[in-house]
Amino acid sequence: MQKIFDAIFHIIDYNYKIIENQGYKPPQFLPKDYLEFMSNYELLGGAIVSGSFQDFDTQYLKSALSFFGKNYVGVINYNPDYSDSDIIELDKIGVKAIRFNIKRGTKETIDTIEYASKRVFEIASWHSEIYIDSKDIESIKNKLLSIPCLVVDHLGLSKDGFLNVLNLVEKGAYVKASGFGRLDFDPVFAIKQIVSINPNACVFGSDLPSTRAQRPFSYSDIDLINNNFDDSQKRKIFYENGLNLYRLNLK
Length: 251
Prior knowledge:
Elements: E1 3-9, H1 31-37, E2 42-49, H2 59-68, E3 72-77, H3 84-93, E4 95-101, H4 110-124, E5 127-131, H5 141-145, E6 150-152, H6 162-170, E7 174-177, H7 187-197, E8 202-204, H8 219-228, H9 231-245
Parallel strand pairs: 1-2, 2-3, 3-4, 4-5, 5-6, 6-7, 7-8
């Protein structure tokens, strides 16, 4: 059975706050739905990522993390109103990163993203994740490079800007091998390029339930990795790199 640390999936629970984003509200997707979908794999843990439709709500995340237990962590949308003690308390329940949804029109400027990223890293060693079309990286690349630990979602989405993603990898960024149905290029080729630069930089994520994706996640996405990488590379992509990124020790 394939071992997996799922570095990006969403839990959508209408018992908690859900807001419309760009005219869209997602379908409900509960922890039990996720576990049922992924029941063919040995789940070592994962990262529950807050979507734009969850805004600054963390109550749903507290509930989900309590359900899943240890080795599952949370990624939240950055709230500038959080005090240092708020961040420390969130860290205690398992939050390990902030996320900026540039693709969906985040309100933050790049200067705010840079400041916030440095702040949470200093307080709690959280890293920063960005959902961005790679074509838009070029104009803000220098600011992104100043972020202590940066993660790019969904392989950067676009073929035309993929070299920008590789430039970030060369400087230490991580990239999530996720959202294959969102891409306009071959994910295997992209992952091979990343691995050739840094074998520790690529982390797998299912992106379930694939909100707004042209094609949702399928088991064939996992097969693509299994069929195109050697055992050492697969271990790193599927779970070792993710566990390292989120600072989890299974021992």
